[in-house]
Amino acid sequence: MKNEPQPRMVYVAQPSLPPLEDFMPYLEKIWSSRILTNNGPFHQQLERALCEYLGVAHISLFANCTIGLVTALQALRITGEVITTPYSFVATAHSLLWNGIKPVFVDVDPDTLNLDPDKIEAAITPQTTAIMPVHCYGHPCDVKRIEQIADNYGLKVIYDAAHAFGVRCDDASVLQYGDLSVLSFHATKVFTTFEGGAIISPDAKTKKRIDHLKNFGFVDEVTVVAPGINGKMSEVNAAMGLLQLKHIDAALEKRRVIDTMYREGLASVKGVRCVNDAGESRANHAYFPIMVEHPNYPMSRDQLYQVLKERGIYARRYFYPLISDFPMYKGLPSAARDNLPVAARASSQVLCLPIYAELDLDVVERTIQLIRHPW
């Protein structure tokens, strides 16, 4: 294998871009209208289209998911302590700090890598005001258990649904659970607007407050009702979303094929565990994480990562390190490694393999063979 030709670089995710000529009519309309932002026609059109596609009633577009998370916490007036996961992208916890809220980390379930409901309940204190779970890799959390816990203790629930575009649970959108859900439309996501995000609201009143907050708190030209932020999505980003939406079902089907190839190709590899599939009707195949369980597998996760990298396949150790290991969090009592054994183990073993709509199936097969025979 060492003498084989070097392939082009292959990364975990690449944006699914339509032909440039398909995008030009949108740009021409933006140019001719001279409306570049501030709730323009494409912005409004994309909100309506996403409500229909996702099966939700109210959606507010944002410049990115992080600002969406910050605004969601502000919209619900969350204070004190919020229970969340250490096994996520750092923006999850950063949104809490931006609002002056104390993150309380609890461990994750070993199969789904989502927040363990039993650990949530054990961590509740008089200062707890909310729970912020993550639908990790697009696999739904135990939404019914979390809802029950929140109801019993009078807590709000904000889902970081960055990975969960189009994911369903009990034959309905998973975005309908919790008080708010926040999506990401980053370039690496299943559905992209280059940069972008959205908050899903349960009612028109909540959406109205969120729309005020994302525009500095303005209600009209002379009235500001809250210290909001500039979270608006531009017309160019919204146009990209409208174009992407035309191709999303085909892209999801291509991802499903790649997911199936990986699962079948790696099923018999000792020491390699594919993270549980959420099921064909529920998953969006946003990521393909495996757990490299050395010494059952002949090398460590980091060694396999390097083997793939040397052959032009850039897998990702996602999520590594844990959020709780970063300097601004590691001093918290809940960040102690002894408190998070499952998350710590997953972080040391996880490797996300390339998966995106335009990924060549020959590369998928080659990746499988490298994992099966890494020497």
UniProtKB/TrEMBL annotation:
GO function terms (MF aspect): transaminase activity
Keywords: Aminotransferase, Pyridoxal phosphate, Transferase
Domain of life per record: Bacteria
InterPro entries according to UniProt: DegT/StrS_aminotransferase, PyrdxlP-dep_Trfase, PyrdxlP-dep_Trfase_major
A Pfam cross-reference name: DegT_DnrJ_EryC1
Family to which this protein belongs: Belongs to the DegT/DnrJ/EryC1 family.
Identification of the protein by name: Aminotransferase
Source species of the chain: Pseudorhodoferax aquiterrae
Higher taxonomy: Bacteria, Pseudomonadati, Pseudomonadota, Betaproteobacteria, Burkholderiales
